Input
Amino acid sequence: MRLTRPRATEGTHTVDLSGGTGGLADDRALLGRTSTAERVADILRTRIAEGYFPPGVRLSEESIGGALGVSRNTLREAFRLLTHERLLVHELNRGVFVRVLAVGDVDDIYRTRRLVECAVVRGLGQPPYAVDGLVAAVAEGEGAARAEDWRGVSTANIHFHRELVALAGSARTDELMRGVLAELRLAFHVVDDPRALHEPYLLRNREILDALRAGERAAAEQLLARYLDDSRTRVAAAYAQAVDEPTGP
Output
């Protein structure tokens, strides 16, 4: 799969939400009576993180606004927020596109993940830890693998790391990592062999979970650090091949 950054007009496409929205219209209820751009941005961020809007896709104001039942001004403000988070890019006279990452972006995402995720585990108090969310994410990933749903495995992996960060009990850290993990999904989406990319980490997620269940915080941090270093190398190489960009000097 070859991908170019969305400034090139050739090969870009628009998400048609008239027929298949991935259930986006169902998210309208999340907006409640006090619909805001921040809530719209949160819905779209989640959809990007779960792979519904792939990199390079043009987002239609009319289709998305209609599906969510929000005004054009509200939607444009949501787009602006997500552009600030580096998930979208706006191109003059062309529209808004889901961003295509550079290989350097992938490296930076992993540096951020290592700093935050390892610090969360290191900072955990005394066991037992509230690992129910991690248990559910591991089961989700293993179930998706049995069904050979590799996009589902990728989504479960995102859920696992989101639940891991949530152990810190920090709304600010949760918010930071939602954006970081959504950016990471932009890289996952273009890799040619998602099974090879994601399958090895099913077992490693379970190993981290087992260490935390046993109250072995230091062991869990070591497992996580090696996991993230290995994943960074594999994802950066696979992504560079997918977008035909060198990984470095």
